[in-house]
Design goal:
single chain, nine-stranded mixed β-sheet, six-stranded mixed β-sheet, globular, alpha/beta
């Protein structure tokens, strides 16, 4: 089979690896519009379950990924001058540049052709049996047939900025600061021996009140360094990792599609779906897309059947992550509902922000309910049953209002 992957991100590269491992006779080309070695962002995060899957499908690239990742198994939350720390699941961080380098080297070694500075537009698709649109959230290929795909893009409320720092955190770290113009917060995690990712978020009124929307990059970083001086411990913040101009505040866009394929064109990763960055699942879901697509292509001789299976399986698998992402984003958008709780309770509900039940129960009551559910199986079952139903009803009301 001749395959063209448009977009040289983790999903497209990993798909090319898996397809070559299944059948070395596949002719696979990855087309990436940017130069080799250039990428945006700092580090990405993932969890043990993904690493285990990668070891199952390609042990060689998984070992390289494992060797170049840093780990943590605790979380800390700083609210004003109070700090709470607790154990958590094992997390991993790796530089986005290093991740792409590992996958590109593995793909090349298997015979995949990588074409950099090669932009593929929607009006000149490659001649291939399968064209994979892995060209990200702003996918031009998806945009060309947006009506067919049933693409919907929903903007979040809070602006955010993705930064780096030389402060190497020893845990997944949250910090909430009350400024003269409202709350602003960040979370950070390490991704190599000398640097960490820091994502800063706040309501629009706080960003604008602090003047961050109108400042130069240097002035904005200086203001943020002062606000987060305690958590940064004297280390600087850094702007765009690719050096391409100033750091800009963004608004997260949730992308969904009614269908994921059109003829021999199929959507992959952020081109197909996005989930709010606060659940740290973007890279994981993209790589899982690649695994599912490779499996479906291996199981069906008919391309339409393979693409139908891929879409069906991934849509089902994404339901939990999309719900968690939606509720996580809403938790931050309603931070004042939780911020004045005692620190250990606030941190507990920070960890429960994915819950579909939490928005409908007073925070103090939810905390007590959650503690009791840990001891009573019947209450735990009720909590699991009630939350999704309330969330679905609210989501349906929101959609009907939007229509």
């Amino acid at each position: 089979m001749k395959v063209a992957c448009v977009g040289g991100g983790p999903a497209g590269l990993y798909l090319s690896i898996l397809l070559k491992l299944r059948d070395p006779s596949h002719e696979i080309t990855v087309h990436e519009r940017d130069p080799e070695g250039s990428t945006y962002g700092w580090g990405v995060t993932y969890w043990r379950a993904l690493l285990d899957k990668l070891h199952e499908h390609d042990p060689e690239s998984a070992r390289a990924l494992d060797a170049h990742s840093v780990r943590w198994n605790e979380g800390t939350a700083r609210v004003r001058d109070l700090v709470t720390r607790k154990p958590g699941d094992e997390g991993f961080g790796i530089g986005r540049h290093r991740l792409l380098e590992i996958l590109a080297d593995r793909a090349r070694a298997l015979g995949v052709r990588l074409e950099f500075e090669d932009e593929i537009g929607p009006d000149a698709l490659p001649d291939a049996d399968l064209v994979v649109a892995g060209d990200g959230v702003h996918s031009a290929l998806r945009g060309r047939w947006a009506e067919h795909f049933g693409t919907e893009v929903t903007a979040g409320r809070n602006p955010y900025v993705w930064l780096g720092t030389t402060r190497v955190f020893d845990a997944f770290t949250f910090a909430f600061v009350e400024s003269d113009h409202g709350w602003i917060w960040c979370y950070g995690y390490p991704f190599d021996a000398g640097r960490s990712t820091v994502v800063v978020e706040c309501p629009p009124a706080t960003r604008d009140g602090l003047g961050l929307d109108a400042m130069s990059e240097a002035d904005g970083l200086a203001v943020l360094e002062k606000l987060f001086a305690d958590v940064l411990d004297g280390h600087p913040l850094m702007g765009r990792s690719d050096g391409a101009g100033s750091t800009s505040w963004l608004t997260f866009r949730t992308v969904t599609n009614r269908t994921w394929h059109h003829g021999n064109l199929v959507l992959l990763g952020d081109a197909a779906h996005t989930t709010h960055y606060s659940i740290g699942a973007g890279t994981t879901l993209a790589l899982e897309d690649a695994i599912a697509l490779a499996d479906a292509l291996g199981a069906h001789a008919s391309l339409p059947d393979a693409l139908d299976r891929y879409e069906r399986e991934r849509k089902g698998a994404l339901l939990t992550a999309q719900s968690a992402a939606r509720h996580s984003a809403q938790w931050y958008e309603n931070l004042t509902r939780y911020i004045d709780l005692p620190p250990e309770r606030m941190f507990a509900l920070l960890g429960q922000r994915h819950s579909p039940l939490l928005p409908y129960v007073p925070p103090q009551l939810y905390y007590r309910l959650d503690r009791a559910a840990g001891r009573l199986d019947s209450l735990r079952r009720l909590k699991r049953w009630l939350g999704p139903r309330l969330a679905r009803a609210a989501h349906a009301r929101e959609l009907s209002t939007r229509d």
